[in-house]
Design brief:
Blueprint lengths: L1 H12 L13 E5 L8 E4 L5 E4 L9 H12 L5 E5 L5 H4 L2 H7 L2 E6 L8 H15 L2 E4 L5 E2 L5 E7 L2 E2 L9 E2 L11 H7 L9 E6 L2 E5 L5 H8 L2 E2 L6 E3 L11 H7 L3 E4 L9 H8 L6 E6 L14 E3 L20 E5 L5 E5 L5 E4 L6
Parallel strand pairs: 3-4, 4-5, 5-6, 12-14, 14-15, 15-16, 16-17
Antiparallel strand pairs: 1-2, 1-18, 2-3, 7-8, 8-9, 8-11, 10-13, 11-12, 18-19, 19-20
Bound molecules: zinc ion (2 copies).
The site of one zinc ion has 6 residues, from helix 3.
């Protein structure tokens, strides 16, 4: 009888058991290396999954394979909610490969691309055929993504930001003084019309809060954070726009008061020197973790323990141009009290950050 009962319990616990075999009451976040694109997997204690962005297309489905590897590690067999922050290929491009590998139940995005160029429109139309066969919802600021145990709030989408602050937020932001908008020179160089449409969200789990913002631009950070901070503070800042210098204003990063930042940069994508410099001035920030060594940042790079992928990738390491090196993610595991642990999957180096005011 005792054995039978134990077996029943094992089955009951299976849905909330990681591949490491331990029952968990944690929010798990995998910042997946997609060589300068973005893909971040959130797994709730129930096992329900939220994937934000899908990396690049091509390379034999390389980025989708990396997402599947993270999903396996988390014990996830389908993507319950896919958020495509915006319709650039480094965020949307891997969706078709991924749909071939894992069921995607719900597609969430900002609706329709604002990019009029032929190539991007064709890529968008291919994505539309995917979401047409599933549940699709265009989200707006203030919307929730319904996942049991998590509090997920959209803070920006489709070029709009929160009209009213999130609960507990709305304080004046002293870091708005001196905010300098990026002018036409920078905007035209980066052609960021689609970036500023990015779906951005706060993911809450008990006392723990993380923010993820796609490629939301510097100029769009202003209405979100100024003159009052409509977001509040966070424990984890998933560094905006791969750490590009065209996002991550002081008005954003100082007011968020993150305790830890994880940057999903590539060797020569994002990881901008100004981003490193401005993060170094955030007094609350315990550590910055990087998914890649950032070539442009030089000595500003963190010590190797905090960098998931060290190789100086030049675009290819095979004769056919496909990068097949092993890739490593940065893993965050949070508990309801607001404590969390960050682990570099390359070397197993990890650091625990206690709950605010806790031990
Ligand atoms: Zn991007
Ligand atoms: Zn973009």
């Amino acid at each position: 009888m005792r054995i039978a009962l134990a077996a029943t319990l094992c089955v009951a616990l299976a849905a909330t058991t990681s591949t490491h075999g331990q029952a968990r009451d944690t929010l798990d976040i995998y910042v997946i290396d997609v060589e300068g694109g973005e893909a971040t997997l959130f797994v709730a204690p129930s096992g329900e999954s939220l994937l934000v962005d899908t990396g690049w297309p091509g390379f034999d489905g390389r980025d989708a394979d990396r997402i599947v590897a993270a999903a396996r590690d988390a014990g996830v067999s389908q993507i319950d909610h896919l958020v495509v922050t915006h319709f650039h290929t480094d965020h949307m491009g891997g969706a078709a490969h991924l749909a071939d590998r894992l069921p995607i139940v719900t597609y969430l995005d900002h609706g329709t691309t604002v990019d009029q160029a032929e190539g991007p429109r064709a890529a968008f139309e291919r994505y539309v055929t995917l979401r047409t066969g599933a549940v699709h919802r265009a989200v707006a600021p203030g919307d929730q993504v319904p996942i049991d145990g998590l509090d997920i709030r959209v803070i920006a989408a489709g070029g709009e930001v929160l009209a009213t602050p999130l609960a507990g937020a709305g304080q004046p932001n002293p870091h708005c003084d001196g905010f300098v908008f990026h002018g036409a020179d920078i905007l035209s160089r980066y052609g960021d019309a689609e970036d500023q449409q990015s779906v951005s969200a706060v993911v809450g789990f008990g006392e723990f809060r993380a923010v993820i913002m796609g490629d939301l631009t510097w100029n769009k950070e202003h209405p979100l954070m100024c003159p009052t901070n409509k977001v509040g503070t966070v424990d984890l800042y998933l560094v905006s726009h791969h750490g590009s210098d065209t996002s991550g204003s002081d008005a954003l990063v100082q007011a968020l008061q993150p305790r830890v930042a994880v940057m999903n940069n590539g060797p020569t994508k994002g990881g901008g020197p100004r981003t490193f410099e401005s993060l170094s001035r955030v007094a609350s920030l315990g550590d910055l973790w990087q998914n890649h060594y950032a070539v442009a940042a030089g000595d500003a790079n963190r010590q190797e323990s905090f960098i998931a992928n060290l190789q100086d990738f030049d675009g290819a390491n095979e004769a056919d141009g496909i990068h097949r090196d092993a890739a490593y993610w940065t893993h965050v595991r949070a508990t309801r009290d607001g404590a969390f642990t960050v682990t570099n999957s390359r070397n197993g180096f990890s650091r625990r950050y206690p709950a605010r005011g806790g031990q």
